[in-house]
Amino acid sequence: MKKFLALVQRDLILVYRSANDAWVVLFFFVIAVTLFPLGIGPDPGVLQQLSGGIIWICALLSAMLSLDGVFQSDFDDGSLDQMILTSYPLELLVLGKCFVHWLTTGFPILLISPVLATMLNMNLDSYSTLLITMLLGTPTISLMGGVGAALVLGSRRSGVLISLIILPLIIPILIFSVAAINASGEGVEISSAVKLLGALLIISSVFCPWATAATLRHLTN
Amino acid sequence: MKNLFFGTNLKVTRGGRCLAKNLEFKIESGGMLLLNGENGSGKSTLLRIMAGLTKPASGKICWNNDDVLDNLSEHFKRMIYVGHSTAIKSNLTIKENLKYWQKIHLGDKDKRDQLEHSLEIFNLTTSSNSPARCLSSGQSRKLALARLMLKPASLWLLDEPTVGLDTAGLRSLITLLNNHCERGGIVVMASHDEVRVECPVHILKTDNFKKG
Question: Do strands B32-36 and B186-190 pair parallel, antiparallel, or not at all (unpaired)?
Fold first, then answer.
């Protein structure tokens, strides 16, 4: 456990000291959401209908922005080799890196999403659902993103490549989250969509670190 | 306890190209294996194979008759690998870099006084709270080597450790190597420079095993 915490602590310090990267994601999210009312007109009815989808699509794209850096610097400077050489499960270290990624991208997105939801005139009944879907969905994006980030290590244009690889995996999160938000706006039962999101998170937290670690080991081979 | 580190019938490949085949080496406790050879002859790749980071295309590496690949976790515990890349985070201070390395490799057993001592040996104490991005390449090399003092290990794998070192740094490295071999440790080092140590040195020329 101490090793896991050592890695998390190191990465949090690194993110804090290179503050630019962490803010870029949040600014992009805010700007992207803000563009929608400007682009599709201020009609509150239309905005309300689309609010769940707009927020979630922008959250998805923002969270994916910073994925290509997750393992790149460690791979470049030899830290990844040293991580493999600790006799500690690489899967847990990968989980630590995905956790830090979520804490510095998905979590701020989650915190600011209700504020942006007011700008899109989201139905008041949907706010709690928005937060629940964000809480379950954004960590899943970080976990799946870890797999993509490992797969594209060392290639150019890695940002685009990651999006292409993991977008198909992430689309179910988008569909279930938006369905849940829209359903709660109409007063319909949302538990099945939320349970599916929870299941995706649980499966990802087991499968993704394992797949990512296997990819990283293969790449350093 | 006497240890034996050896490899048989090794085929070293990189990027699909075979660099060396039927390579053999054998080194006992208290000795040093010096890897010599042209640039590109596979010294670094061979060190990575010895570290267990890369699987050899054929052949095996054994520690006391146990194949290293059968129990990589045990192998990682008994060795320190200082590769060509220094694994230094430029946004962390020198001390933070060492502390992190200590924690990630030793977990519970981090020892503060060993950290201070390792900084002293390599003359890094005065700049220990500066960010690592301020280090020169020679100082970065010293920082990478300072890790050798932080973890008890029987096997040291060093890739070009002398690059950029000044006279004092080289002296400190030689002292460390001598102490390590005296305690029964094994060193495998790839280097173009002559390193005058007191322990028995065996030389392995990777060019001799070149294909064709």
Answer: parallel
pLDDT digits (tens, 9 = 90+) for A47-72: 999 999 999 999 999 988 888 888 98
Query: How many Å lie between the alpha carbon of B99 and the closest alpha carbon of chain A?
Result: 9
Contact A74, A105 (CB under 8 A): no
- ipTM confidence score: 0.90
**Judged by CB atoms within 8 Å, which residues 3-62 of A form the interface with B?**
3, 6-7, 9-10, 13-14, 17-18
Q: Do residues A105 and A139 touch, judged by C-beta distance below 8 A?
A: no
> How many inter-chain contacts (A to B, CB under 8 Å) are there?
72
Give the residue from chain B lying closest to A74, CA to CA. Answer: B87
Residue of B nearest to A217 (CA): B53
For chain A, percent of residues with pLDDT exceeding 90: 64
B91 contacts A18? CB cut-off 8 A: yes
Nearest CA in chain A to B104: A3
Using an 8 Å Cβ cutoff, are A100 and A12 in contact? yes
Overall number of domains in chain A = 1
> Cα separations (Å) of B197 from A83, B174, B175?
30, 6, 8
Nearest to A81 among B55, B83, B107 (CB): B83
pTM to 2 decimal places: 0.91
Residue B212 pLDDT level (bands cut at 50, 70, 90): very low
| Contact assessment for residue A71 and residue A149, using Cβ atoms and an 8 Å cutoff | yes
Give the least confident one: A130-134, B31-35, B207-211.
B207-211
CB B86 within 8 A of CB B161: no
Dihedral of the alpha carbons of A117, A119, A122, A127, in degrees to the nearest 10: 30
Q: Give per-residue pLDDT as tens, B155-174.
A: 999 999 998 898 999 999 99
Domain span at residue A17 reads 2-219
Which of B48, B31, B35, B41 is closest to B162 using CA atoms? B35
Separation CA A38–CA B39 (nearest Å): 60
